[in-house]
Structure formats: C-alpha cells, structure tokens
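Homework help board

Subject: predicted structure for assignment chain

Our instructor gave us this sequence and asked us to write out the predicted structure in token form, then describe one feature. I got the tokens but I'm not sure how to describe them. Can anyone check?
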Amino acid sequence: MALHIQMSDEALKQLKKAALMNKLISFGACAGFLLLFGGILYFTILIIASEQPAEFIAYQAPSSDGPPSSNPVSRELSARTATTNPTVTPSVIVAQNAVGAVAAPVSLDTSGELSFDQMDVSVNLDTSLGEGLGSDGGGMGQGGGDGGGLKGEFYDLKLTKSGAPSALTKGVSSKVKNPKTNKMEVVVNTNSTEFRQRAAEKLHELFTRNNQRALSGFYKSPQILWNPHFCVPSIDASVATISFGTADVCKPSGLVVVYHGRVRAPKSGKFRFVGMGDDFMGVRFNKEPVLEAGYMLPSLWKKDSDSFEVNAFVQNDPDRLKNHWKAVKEHKLPAFDGYEQDPSYKNLAVWNKGVGGLTLGKVFEVKEGEVYPIQVIVAEIPGGQFGFVLLMEDVTNGPGKKGDPKRYDLFRTNFAVPTVESLRKILKDNKITMPQSTADQMPSFNEDSLIWTVVDVD
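My token output:
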C-alpha cells in the first residue's frame, strides 16, 4: 500500500513566512554593520584626524645672531643698465645656449659691501670658460692667470733674444758711460726717423699682415701678465718695463706688448672697438684688424715713400692729422673705412690735440655664445709718456650720442673696473709716481659694461 505525504497549505504558508523573515533579518544585520562602519570611519578620519589649517610661522633669530642694524642693504644684481656708479657691481651676460647653472646655498658676509669674492657659489657651467671671472687686474696686467684676462707678452725692439742690440738700432745708437754704474752702455735714439720707420715696419708685419713671427727675433720678457681690461692714462713708459720685470734689462722705449686669447660674445649684435694708444693701440678680432688708433698707425707704413705714410706717425701735427681724417672720410685709406673720431671728451685734452681724440673702429658682428680670437697690441716707440684705453660701442641699434659719458662700454673680460684709485695702487706697488693731472685723463664709460669671458689663450 502506497503512502503519500503532502504538506498542508497552512504549513507551506508558515514556512515561506519564516524564510522571508530570515532574509529581512539578514539584510537588517548587514545594513546595521554598514552604518556602524560608516560611523566609525566618520569619527576617526573626518573628525578625530582632520587636517589642521596650514600656518606660516616666522622665525626670529635671537638678537645675538642677527646682523647689526646699521649695515647697508645688499644690492640686487640687475640686468644690464646704463649706470656709471662705480660702487655698483655689474651683471654678467651669459650665453643662452650655455649649460644651465645649479647654484648651491650662498654664504654672504653682511658686515660690509657686497663682494663677489665673499660668495660661496657652485656653478655648473661649460668648463671651457677659462680660469675664472675675477675682479682683479688693470694697468699692464697681473701675474698668475686666474683672473680671466688676456695673456700679455712683452717685447723690446731694441734687443735680440740674447739681449744684444737688434738690427733696428743700426746707425742710431751710441755707447756712453753710465754715471751710476760707471759702465759703458748702448743708448739708442728711439726718437729718430730711422728707428721709428723700422719699428713701424715691424708693427705693420705683425698687425696689418698678421705675421706672428714679426717679433720672434726680439727680446721677450719671461714674465707673463694677464689683463682683463685696458685703461692706463698718460704716464711714464717705465710702467711697462717695471710691470713685466724688465727694468734692469730694457729701457722704456721701443716696446711692444701683445695680449691675446679667445673670448665668448655675451650677446648677439653689431659692435666696434673705441680706443687710443700712445703710441699705438691695435685690435685684431676674429683674425681681422678692426681698430688702429694712436700717434702711430702701422697700416700707413710704406717702404721708400716720401709721403707722411713713411713712418706712419700723425702725432702732434695739425696738418698731418687733418689730412689723415680727410683721407679717411674720402675713402682714400681702405684700412680705415668706417673709422670715426670722437674728440668730445674734454678731459682727454692731450689725446684730443695729438690724435683727434678717441678713434672708433670698424663695425663687426657676433653671435651670442660664439667664441672669437682676439689680439690687443700696445706699443711705445720713442719713450716718455705712455698710455692707452680700449672701449666698445654696441651699434646694433645705431651709434650712441656723441659726448654721452655712458655711450661706450669698457672692454673687459671679468668684473674689474679701472679707477684712479686702483691705478694708483698698481703704480705704488711698482714704485711709480703718477702725476695728479693724470687722474683727469681717465675716460668715462658705462660702469655696467658687458663681460667678454676669456675661454682660453693660444
């Protein structure tokens, strides 16, 4: 007999009701746990551990650590301006394509004026920037080579390498007894036409023809000097022999000093050198002669000629000077095309009268960051008064106003700026006396001049 069991409708209904109740209880429990977790999260993160408002707390050092209140405020290094205040430390123009600099913390001594020598700065620049950007130099230059100057070499046209009289002294020298040493010495008449012509020929070979062997047979000082700028007011030529340590060997006449190296252009544009030399100041830039100034002009030298170009001198002769500049304006002297004269600086009365003032040379163009060879030559032939100055003019946007004391830059390769005081110190160190009137012959220039960094010397 088969047995059949079936749940009644009432029991099935009770079972479904119980299942539904269990589901509701489970859902409620889950919801309760979620609410509890959210509450805990709210109280622990949003309230208990909420972020406190940011505050800037200024630190005030104890009075014993602070600088004296009487100290001046350190000046900022600004972009290139047209200031002539000698106390302002100039800015450096660095090529845009140079490797970026990474500066370490700067330590300054605030007890006095701001000095670049006091800065402890690490700069990651192109290592070809030479020995450094110092603030020393001037006069005929300084020893060492760490001041970022051009390399200067001294020659005496009166002597051979061995110290014997050179061929230039033939027929213009004599032997006399020196009353101090009671010894016979050779005295050369360096003011004679013959000697000046011969000296002009050598400078013509060196400067105009770029014959680097023109001075190879003459006495050369073993002392090397490095000069970051060129500004020596009219003074006795012994400053050259003393500075190069040749005073015991060479008389201060028939002298040639050649400064050379390679410099980096601080900006793109058109420039020209401006200068004067007693007897001669010459500049070759990028292997081309771009400035020839002074009482002696080697490019005018011509062999076997009866014109004023024979000895290349235009000194203290109004007619000769007038004829020279007339020929320049009429383009009769190709070597001087584009040259101008500037006699507007009244304090340069001696140079204005003798050579017509400062000479503005040929315009040349450079690109920022590019490196160019440069050669600066100064010479004194007869002896006596000696001096020179080398400036620059940025003519990218046209020439400046004549007579403006800020018109010209000082050509320089480091931070150094010549002053009467610095020149007097150099002369004092070398036991040379500078007449008070010489201080009035310092040309004016823009103190915040560009810096043409020396990359290397050849």
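Reply (TA_rk): Your tokens look well-formed. For the description, you could write something like this. The CA atoms of residues 137 and 275 lie 19 Å apart. That's the kind of observation they're looking for.
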